[in-house]
Amino acid sequence: MTRVRVLLALAGAAVAVGLWLALTAPPDALQGEYSRLLGIHPPAMWLAFLAFGVTAFGSIMWLIKKTNRWDRLAAASVEIGVIFTAIGLFTGMVWGQAVWGSPWDWQDPRLMSTAVMFFVYLGYIALRNAIDDPQVRARRSAILGAIAVVQVPLVYFSVNLFRTLHQTQSIRPDGSTMPDEMLVAMLVNMAAFTLLYIALMAARLDVASAEADAPPESAVAGDAVRPPRLSEVEDV
Amino acid sequence: MSDTVVVAGTFLISYGLILAYTVYLHIRRKRAES
Q1: Does the distance separating the beta carbons of A98 and B21 come in below 8 Å?
Q2: Is A126 an interface residue toward B (CB < 8 Å)?
Q3: Do the chains contact at B32 and A210, CB–CB below 8 Å?
Q4: Distance CA A45, CA A185 (A)
Q5: Which residues in chain A have Cβ-Cβ distances shorter than 8 Å to B21?
Q6: Is residue A161 part of a domain?
Q7: ipTM greater than 0.90, yes or no?
Q8: Is residue A56 part of a domain?
């Protein structure tokens, strides 16, 4: 628990530094104050990609090793990935409203592929909650977790593969298209969010092991009711 | 609504969601331990 608190405190401090850099960077000449969203929108999506990548890794490892720790890792990472995808979508919609004049475009490949990815991983969480048997739950969610990750490169490269309102990547092999202050703010926030991911994962995995160690829930009405066994049925 | 307010509100809601998730994990852990 102390380890989780230290990690959360470190992540909180890193995020505060990132926020300060994002809020003090000079505003863009065209986008004005909205350019500050660079401090949260790309880092949130980076974290979502990282989280879903870890989920795929945990899922594949479960399929190979069949040990609970990999299932817990995959499940923990999905929750965090879904939250940060929601933040990425929300901040993107605010930015889109300001820059494109509309928060959403139903025909835009980047927006739609991100939304589909969000709902697929929400479905992953729903699937886990719908299955009581731990082995069946682990197997089915591992298969989904290993397959669903194909969406990550699809979302990332959608701006290169299709015509879209969304701009292409700002950081390319030949350099960056951003002023240094904005680039530094974005990169520091990406590092801070990575630390935040590690801290949230530690906290979430702690919850998973505490829940696994907890005694089974007390009996509820209906527990005592079971179907009759044929051997107990007497002919009358 | 001014741009500054919208951007500040966007940051606030986003960080608020992360904070809410952290609190949710804390509550879940306490419940599992009790």
Answers
A1: no
A2: no
A3: yes
A4: 15
A5: 79-80, 83, 200
A6: yes
A7: yes
A8: yes
Instruction: Indicate the residue of A80, A91, A206 with minimum beta-carbon distance to B14.
Output: A91
Q: What does the pLDDT profile of chain A (236 residues) look like in tens digits?
A: 689 999 999 999 999 999 999 999 988 888 889 999 999 999 999 999 999 999 999 999 999 999 999 999 999 999 999 999 999 999 999 999 999 999 999 999 999 999 999 999 999 999 999 999 999 999 999 999 999 999 999 999 999 888 888 888 777 777 777 888 889 999 999 999 999 999 999 999 999 999 988 877 666 666 666 666 666 666 66
Is A16 an 8 Å CB contact of chain B?
A: no
What token pair was written down for B4?
């500054």
Domain for residue A236, yes or no? no
Phi, psi values for residue A181, rounded to 5°: -60, -40
Domain count, chain A: 1
Structural contact between residues A19 and B11, judged by C-beta atoms closer than 8 angstroms: yes
A226 in a structural domain: no
Residue A221: what are its φ and ψ, rounded to 5°? -55, 130
Tokens for A33? 């104050």
- How far is Cα A118 from Cα A152, in angstroms, rounded to an integer? 11
Contacts of B5 in chain A (CB under 8 A): none
Query: Which residues of chain B lie closer than 8 angstroms to A87, CB-CB?
Result: 14, 17-18
CATH number of the domain residue A137 falls in: 1.20.120
Provide the domain limits for residue A168: 2-208
pTM: 0.89
Question: Nearest chain B Cα to A36, which residue?
Answer: B7
